[in-house]
Amino acid sequence: MGGVPEHFNLPVHLALENGLFEARGINLQWTMCNGGTGQMTSALRDGSIDACIVLTEGIIKDIVDGNKSKIISGYINTPLIWGVHTGAKNTLQHHSEVYDKQYAISRFGSGSHLMAVVDAITHEKQIAKAQFQIVSNLDGALESLADLSTDVFYWEKFTTKPYVDNGQLKRIGEFVTPWPCFVIAATDDILRQSPETIIHMLEVIHDSCRAFMQSDDNIPLVAERYGQKMNDVEQWYHATEWATHGWISNKMLQGVVHNLQMAELVHSTQPIPELVWRRK
Fold first, then answer.
1. Is 147 in contact with 86 (CB distance < 8 Å)?
2. d(Cα 14, Cα 276) in Å, to the nearest integer?
3. Which of 69, 85, 105, 266 could disulfide-link 260, Cβ–Cβ 3.0 to 4.6 Å?
4. What domains does the chain contain, in order, with CATH numbers?
5. Are 137 and 108 in contact (CB under 8 A)?
6. What is the mean predicted confidence (pLDDT) over 88-110?
7. DSSP string covering 11-24, please?
8. Are 26 and 209 in contact (CB under 8 A)?
């Protein structure tokens, strides 16, 4: 299973550390994907991972583009708050100034790319492909923003907060994803080969997420593990809801596809394949 090195995934790490997958006969191995959604969708395609916790819009776009995978469950039911960032030396001051500037993105098709485009469309702006520069991950973005080779970078607000606090980044705005932000996806191959294992894996994840939400003791744990301030983690924790079941809203899927089409990231003539795993 792949995932980003962010606090959202702590319930899965706790389940691993406490042997909860092993107790259900599941040998789950975690693959850290610093490159985010683009890295994970590529890894699903080449079979180097079987499943991942991934941005909703990213996996939907990639399935439409031919990725032989399915969404198997919701993971985070609440939207993601994207910070709109620039470098400390950059003269940019306001979110409204970014749309003709150079964007740092981890990869094309990643959240940092898709959200920048969707944000621009909602403000009746357009971003040219030449405005995007691939920087691979957060470290690459920090470097490119510092040397002014890029001007703006979209990343999850609380993950980048320590860099805002220490002065490496300026947060000049926010953009809230207009849908639940993370889902769990898996390849068609693993769903065909091991459907019962996948169901048991989801049960462990849902149980761990339910337990995580029931204890405020996890707030200092997140702060310690991810190097964040207690008041920031407290704000994030109480604004985030994890999924405790596998249900996916068709209305939500339609909304994401509509926004991707509006942003011309999915062509209106493209057929929309089955996006969600239908358990037999």
1. no
2. 27
3. 266
4. 2-79+180-262 (3.40.190.10), 81-176 (3.40.190.10)
5. no
6. 95
7. HHHHHHHTTHHHHT
8. no
Is the model's pLDDT at 65 over the cut of 80? yes
Query: What does the CA dihedral 29, 202, 176, 229 come to, rounded to 10 degrees?
Result: -60
- pLDDT tens digits for 202-256? 999 999 999 999 999 999 999 999 999 999 999 999 999 999 998 999 999 999 9
CA distance 180 to 240: 10
Decide: 72 and 201 in contact? Cβ < 8 Å: no
How far are the Cα atoms of 57, 176, 195, 257 from residue 253, in angstroms, in the given order? 9, 17, 23, 6
pLDDT at 259: 87
Q: What is the DSSP string of 226-278?
A: HT--HHHHHHHHHT--B-SS----HHHHHHHHHHHHHTTSS-TTS-----B--
